[in-house]
Amino acid sequence: MKTMLSTLILSAFFIFGNTQQSFSQETETHNYVVLTKKVAQLKPILLAATALAKEDGANFGKFEIIVCGKEIGNLTDLEKLQPHLEAAEKVGANIIACGFSLNKFHVDAKKLPKDIKIVDNGILHNLELQKKGYLSLEL
Question: Is residue 9 over pLDDT 80?
Fold first, then answer.
């Protein structure tokens, strides 16, 4: 009798334990952050975001692209940036400018497209997102 009861309890544990584990894996949201120093890398980054959105399906969460460094002034060239802004909007990605870099390289934040968010410190923002569980890549 004890053996039968133990077997029944262990069976229930494995069945419900595996169901719970499968359920939590299926509903996990995947958030991503990419830190880049080159505006020219926006195209491949956004292609990756599109592929991940397709792969993740309903589990695709947020996709943040942080631009830091001396090329940050290239974010003011709306003609070159427009295709990237459209691709980001389509996939639901956010392009973020590092305020520290804007100040250091004397780039007027008012010249940035309205779709670009500014954070005080891009590197700090990246680390804060990693603490929240974002998958991170630095280019």
Answer: no
